[in-house]
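Working notes for the structural subgroup meeting. M.R. asked for a predicted model of this chain before we commit to crystallization trials. I am recording the input and output together here so anyone reviewing the notebook later can reproduce the run.

Input as submitted:
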Amino acid sequence: MKEYIEKAYVLIEALPYFNQFNGKTFVIKYGGSIMTDEKLKKNLFEDISLLKLVGINPVIVHGGGPAINEMLKKLQVKSKFVNGLRVTDQETMEVVEMVLGASINKEIVAMINQLRGKAVGICGKDGGLIKATKKRFPDNDIDLGFVGEVVSIDPTIVENLIANDYIPVIAPIGCDDEGNTYNINADTVAGKLAIALKAEKLIYLTDVDGIRLNPEDENSRASVLSFSEIKDLIEKGKIQGGMLPKVESCIEAVSQGVVRTHILSGLLPHPLLLEIFTDQGIGTMIVND
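Returned structure, recorded in token form:
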């Protein structure tokens, strides 16, 4: 009986959040080690299906680095990285588009649909969603090939899917006015899309439990951080590497109208439910000063 009573309390704790977020849009960036764990994937897509069931509009932007690496290795295509970004020639771009736009994207769609959700997979080329351009560095000495950055987002196709009760699943691939296809950082795409959709939340699922005040101390996670606190951590070198572009996207998103941004671990069971529908949460929420 005690177990049932505890379940009732969990539902009661979540009730205000159901009401608060009904009809709101959450952009969720899915990537990292969770993509290789079948149980964690199922937990996550159960969360996303439940969000939809209680009236929230989840939008998924996914990465796929490990799967791309695996396919390139299988096809014996060698990868080169500069500043953490893959140098993408024409042959590599074809593999990237195949992995992101086909295998990973459709796997996500299939798993959500198995849970009786209604997911539709698209990439940034569909409906002119993502207009991109070639990514360049200030000194212009580095050529990353078909690695792009976002010029603009036209969210119409995503808004139409949401209006028709679908869960959009988006591969971070865009094209320019000449029809060139580009691979774009999924963290960046998620942030830009959240702004364009005027989303309530932007959520990054990662391999760590949020932002740590001391990167070496797993018990130093901050539950909430303001812009000024984030800036201080960056200046002190506490935020760096792969976490930095996520944090920068969070700051840009909140500055341009997204209400809340979150960084949390996808390696826990049901991470979205624990972060969104509990008072304490499990990650770090970034808010404006």
